[in-house]
Amino acid sequence: MTLRTSGIHHITAFASDPQANVDFYAGVLGLRLVKKTINFDAPEVYHLYFGNENGSPGTIITFFPWPNSRRGRIGGGQVGTTTYVIPEGTLGFWAERLAKLGVKAEQTARFGETFLQFVDNEGLQLELVERSEGEPSQWSFGGVPADKAIKGFGGAILYSVNHAQTADVLVNVMGLAKVGEENGYARFQSDGNLGNIIDVRLENMAWGAGGAGTVHHIAWRAKDFEEHEAWREQVAGHDLGPTPIVDRQYFNAVYFREGGGILFEIATDPPGFARDEAPETLGEKVMLPEWYEPHRAAIEGNLLPIQVRVLEGDEQ
Q1: What pLDDT, on the 0 to 100 scale, is given for residue 2?
Q2: Superkingdom of the source (predicted)?
Q3: Do residues 224 and 268 make contact, with C-beta atoms less than 8 angstroms apart?
Q4: pLDDT tens-place string over residues 198-211
Q5: CA–CA separation, 307 vs 101, rounded Å?
Q6: Is 162 exposed, middle or buried (0-12, 13-18, 19+ CB in 10 A)?
Q7: Are strands 177-182 and 8-15 parallel, antiparallel or unpaired?
Q8: How much is the pTM?
Q9: Do the beta carbons of residue 95 and residue 80 sit within 8 Å?
Q10: pLDDT tens, 127-145?
Q11: What is the spatial distance between Cα 80 and Cα 260, in angstroms, rounded to a whole number?
């Protein structure tokens, strides 16, 4: 039986300034900082997770904010644009909000939908689109009330060095269906209600370069640990060379690079972000895996202090 992902689990990107990263994603976009931990492979660097009130799969964008790191170049082998979905009737609110906070945005259309496109403080390409699908967020912060809050991912635009191979993997490995083609983009859809629509640019693009303002990888959902093992077998069966399963504390992960150069991950929905801290205090403390806990003082001493704060433009 061919497995089919329900959509995006998370997207992970690079940044350089941790406080500016928090100010943009919590302050400007109103997302919740649901987990403050470290890069397990480079413990001197934060790993920050932003999402809805629980950090539900399909809502989570994560960052490695490496101070003074180089700026990347968006291109082939990357997620080109990360799409967020907002409640119907709120695009005007978001256009006004971004303008108020000095974020330049412009409207564009694709597949009969209107998108509000902008970049974050380090050049990462983002867009907002209204859709009825997806559970409403219960989180409000600063100038973003819950009834206008980002629900989670709408999907993404993929930039490929071989768009035909990327499309083949989306359909024949990940189980998405091709639902349209228009103005240089192909659209693929899963059966989930968040992170379920992927647009692929129909141009073989020059390789991008990793660094601040670029996406490192896109992760797809596996519903549980048993299915996750089957996913690894399915990827291996297509000769895509998956990694062994890796325990990331809040989900298990397996990685592979598809033929268009984009790093894909498949991540489990469980156990989630409340496994090591209470839901009401998510993101308030630096959480470390047990093997780093004896080194907490040194690790925290190397991290720049950050805080979730209401932006000056939202203060009454």
Answers
A1: 82
A2: Bacteria
A3: yes
A4: 999 999 999 999 99
A5: 19
A6: middle
A7: unpaired
A8: 0.97
A9: no
A10: 999 999 999 999 999 999 9
A11: 13
Beta carbons within 8 Å of 89's beta carbon, 6+ residues apart: 130
CA distance 62 to 51: 9
Tokens of 5: 């992902």
Which tokens sit at 161? 């060095």
Which residue do the tokens 């400007």 mark?
A: 28
What structural domains does the chain harbor?
A: 8-314 (3.10.180.10)
Annotate the chain with three-state secondary structure: CCCCCCCEEEEEEEECCHHHHHHHHHHHCCCEEEEEEEECCEEEEEEEEEECCCCCCCCEEEEEECCCCCECECCECEEEEEEEEECCCCHHHHHHHHHHCCCCEEEEEECCEEEEEEECCCCCEEEEEECCCCCCCCCCECCECHHHCCCEEEEEEEECCCHHHHHHHHHHCCCCEEEEEECCEEEEECCCCCCCEEEEECCCCCECECCECCEEEEEEEECCHHHHHHHHHHHHHCCCCCCCCEECCCEEEEEEECCCCCEEEEEEEEECHHHCCCHHHCCCCECCCCCCHHHHHHHHHHCCCCCCCCCHHHCC
Tokens of 146: 């819950």
